Each structure stands twice: as structure tokens, then as C-alpha cells.
Amino acid sequence: MHITRRIGIQLAIFTVVSLIAATIMMFNFIGVPNLLFGLGHYRITIELPEAGGLYKTGNVTYRGTEVGRVESVDLTDTGVQAVLSMQSGIDIPSNVQAQVHSVSAVGEQYVALLPTGDPAPPLKDRDVIPRNRTSIPPDINTLLDATNRGLEAIPRDNLKTVIDESYTAFAGLGPEIARFVKGSTTLAIDAKTNLGALTNVVDNVGPVLDTQTETSTSVQAWAAHLADITGQLQRNDGAVQGVLRNGPGAATEVRELFERWQPTLPVLLANLTSINPVLITYRDNLEQLLVLLPQGTAMEQAIGVANRNTKQDFKGAYLSFNLNLNLPPPCTTGFLPAQQWRSPAAVDFPDRPEGDLYCRVPQDAMFNVRGARNLPCETRPGKRAPTVKMCESDENFVPLNEGYNWKGDPNATLSGQPVPQLPPGAPPPETAAAVIPPIATAEYDPATGTYVGPDGQIHTQGDLARGGTQERTWQDMLLPPHSN
């Protein structure tokens, strides 16, 4: 038989690949180094009351991950002991619990190592997990016998009814049940993927449950209030149905109303955004106003009906028209000096003087008690100042003087505060003499009605004499005189 060079090369390559595959199988799948020499593994022993279906080469898991295999299962004088071959490099606490579980209903038992949560050194070679920390599943035969006895205890007709009703309840729900099972499987897979976070939640759920226990009274009150609300909704079922029935129409009307307001409503809301900070700053004042407004309205109503149902001609409030002049006198301290005052007859609008113009007398003085010096500071409770700058600073109000002007210059001060002045370059103010013509006065003789006028001539106003026959009014005294 002649073997060509090409066939020889192919046989050599096949032999090398076969050797590599065999080596991989021996080391990775069969675990020949572990079987012959125990490389990469260490052995521990677990004590069981009975085998519970556990067999050699069964899996060993920790937190759901395979970490070893069952090497042997042997009888002892008190039960069964199983030797586990564990993979090195995986730290498993030595206080774990070993439980035998079944993968399926037909068997396939494996050993599940479950942590207790308490810190402990890792397992090492030849460690033993005692019997008080191991468990096995119940015997399937015992379970089947108990199930059979339970079914025999149920009357046959009732059992048939349960089975028939179950068929009726779940008939045709195959896709839904399959979807439920599939979702449960996906949930279990995700839970296994996030096992660390899930275990952390379970370990730390205690404080959360404790808070629920401590707030049980509040939870009961909330449930009682919810029951009260639902009871009211039940009692007012007709009204609730009316709201649901008429609500869409009302909502449409409201929407159309806002559409008609479209050009102006956004502008109004935009303007309110600038007012909002002011309202927040003066919130306490607004609250006080709302508190006092009803009381003030009640007082006004009481005054307005003072003479109601009486024989007095005047009905309404008791009013006093007493004329009080210069009581108290006006405050001139802190304003422009007297020589810079403008005539009240001037109608122009000059530039605002430099500085702040307000009554600068003591805050408890009798002059201008509602002036700017007594404005409350919104952000500094208990402080009063004429300007926001003074309110926000540590500076306090200092008066110029006590305000009694007859002692000298009303702006005379020892505090060093500047007195407002006219802007630089502003023309001097017009005095009253330059704007208002002088008023001519003259004494007249009541017997003859004659008087000397501003021109030096003697004039006669006949109806001013005592013998005058024409009745005169006070308006006639304001008319310009005439000569005879």
C-alpha cells in the first residue's frame, strides 16, 4: 500500500487534532488531574441522617453556582457521610448549611450549600459539616402515600366537582399559562443574575419592616380614611356619575375659554412670574391682611348701621368733621432745604434730587408716624428701616434730629448724614412770589362802602355799605371790585 505525501500530512494533522481534543476532554470534562492527583480541588465531608437519593458524581452548588461534585456516599454507624470534592479558589464560609435537593420530580439530587449570613473563615481540606447543619428532602414514597391518603379522605363526588371546576376555570388558558410560566422562568433567571443585590435586599429588609410595624397606627388611620372616602363615594354615587357624565362637556368649555384667552392669558401669567417673588417676600403681610380683613369688614358694617331703625334724621356712621390744622405738624426734616423748595403752583417735572427723601426724625416721634423710616424689614423680623439696603445690612436707622423745626434748620444734624440736594446744574426753583401774583387787600368803610385800592384811588362799592339793599353772598366777595 502506497501512502502519498498528501495523505501522510492529512493523517498527521488528524492525529494532532485528536490528541488535542482528547487532552481537552481529559483535563476539562473528565477532570483526570483531579481524579488521579486531586489538583485544583479540596475535600470536605458532610454528615447526613440518610442518603436521601444522593449519588456519586452529583453536583454541589453554592448560591446557585456549581462549585464541586459528590465524590462518594458511604454508610456510617449513625447515618451517611458524603465526601465532596470542592473547587479551589472559591471561598465558602465554614458555617454554611448543606441541604440535599432534587433538580426535578424524578430525582437528580444535588447538594446545595447555603450561607447563614454570619462571618466565618472559609472551608478548607478535610473540614466536616455536622449533621445539625444538614438536611435531606422528604421521601417521595412517604409524600405519595400522604397524598393518596388525603385524596381518599375527600368524598369522591366533591373531588370530581373540584376537578371539573378546575377544568372549567383553566380551559382554553394554555397560552396565558404558558406565558405566565415563561415569565416566571425569565424572572427566576434575572433573579439569579442579580442574586447579590437580591440577597442584599433580603438581608436589609428588616429595618424597613420595622418601620412599617412602628407606623402601624398611621397605616390603620390611612386605611380608615380611605374607607371613609370610598363610603362617601358610594353614598354619592349619583353625584359622581353626574360629574363623570358632565365632566367632558365642562372640560371642553374650559378648553375653549382658554383658547379665547390665548392672546392675553400667556402675557398675564408671564407678568405674574415677576410678581411671584414679591408675594413670597410679603407672604407674612398678606396672611396678616387676610386675618384682619374680616374683622375690619365687620367693624365697617357695625359703624355703617349705627342709627338704623331710629328716629334720627341722619342714618349711617357717626362722623366727626373737626378741622385739625398742624396737629401734628408736618415733617420737614430729611427733605430739601427750605431755600430749594419749589412753588406748589409750578407744573413742570424736575429731575429727582439725589439721595433718599423721607422723614428723618426718631422712629418713635409724633411726626409722620407712617413714614418710610418705620417700614418693617421683611427679611429681618423686628427691624424697621426706610430702604431695602439698610434692611439687608447691619446698619440701623439714625435720625437727623428730633424734628422740632423752631429750634433752627430742620436738617441740622450731628450724625454726619448727607442731606438731599438738587441735581448738579439744575436751575434754582421758582419761588411763590415769582409765580403767583400778589393778592390786593384793602380796608373799607362799612358805613359808606368806600375803600382805597392798590392804585391809590378811592373806590366805592355801594352794596358793601350798611344801607345796601342787595343781598350779598360769600361768592360775590371773590369777584373783582368795580368803581362808581
Could you outline the blueprint of secondary structure elements for this entry?
Layout: H1 5-29, H2 32-37, E1 41-48, E2 59-62, E3 65-75, E4 80-87, E5 97-104, E6 107-114, E7 128-129, E8 134-135, H3 140-153, H4 156-170, H5 174-193, H6 195-203, H7 205-214, H8 216-235, H9 237-260, H10 265-281, H11 283-304, H12 388-392, H13 432-435, E9 450-452, E10 458-460
Parallel strand pairs: 1-7, 2-6, 5-8
Antiparallel strand pairs: 1-4, 2-3, 3-4, 5-6, 9-10
Describe the protein's architecture and organization.
The protein is of the alpha/beta class. The longest helix is centred in the N-terminal third of the chain and has 25 residues, at 5-29. The protein is elongated and about 165 Å long. The mean pLDDT is 79. Helices cover 39% and strands 12% of the residues.
